[in-house]
Amino acid sequence: MNRPLLAFVTLLSLAAAAIAQDAGGKPAQEPKKAEAVDFEKQVWPILEKNCLECHSKAAPGPDGKMKKPKGGVVLDSKDAITAGKKGKLLVAKKSGESLLHTSISLAADHEDRMPPAKKGDPLPKEQQDLIKQWIDEGADFGKWTAKKDDKKGDKPAEKKDGDAPAEKGDKSEKKEKGGL
């Protein structure tokens, strides 16, 4: 082999070796593992900012009328998300079957896209991809169960020992006994 050809082959071999390694000196064939998505830190803020205005549990509005969640979809607690009444809202490891992902990834002009056009722009691709990744990883909520306001629960306070008994004219006592 002549010298210029040998030099070219050597240079080509060195270039190929350099390309095959990433900046850390590891071979390019080793894919980097993506970190698991943290629902509370990464997904919840997206839902809270873009979805809860319309998709929170029923509550009295400023006018005193009950404000019901749009389409019966509630996204403010783990139980509501996993037990979605609107079909398959969340199917762990199957983002393509999860309405939570498919509705946010529809075209901007699609009538079923979330958030709807009148409520704002579609979620950025990065946020859509993050939600998709979270679902495909198994939709792990970690320790999160509900928005902070709901951690106390919706149950009325129970009587504790030492509380004063209800007076005879107390309506709550009448209701317990079947009265008005």
Describe the structure.
A two-stranded antiparallel ribbon has the order 1-2. The protein has a domain of 108 residues. It has 180 residues and is mainly α. β1 and β2 form a beta hairpin. It contains six helices and two strands, in the order ααββαααα. α2 packs across α5.
SSE arrangement, N to C: HHEEHHHH
Number of strands: 2
Shape: elongated
Average of the residue pLDDT scores = 77
Q: For the CA atoms, what is the radius of gyration? A: 28 Å
How many DSSP helices?
Answer: 6
Could you name the ranges where pLDDT drops below 50 across 5 or more consecutive residues?
A: 150-180
Record keyword descriptors for this entry.
180 residues; elongated; two-stranded antiparallel ribbon; mainly alpha; single chain
What is this structure, in a nutshell?
With 180 residues, this protein is an all-alpha fold.
Please render the helix and strand layout as text.
Elements: H1 3-19, H2 39-50, E1 59-60, E2 66-67, H3 78-82, H4 99-102, H5 125-136, H6 171-176
Antiparallel strand pairs: 1-2
Helix pairs in contact: 2-5
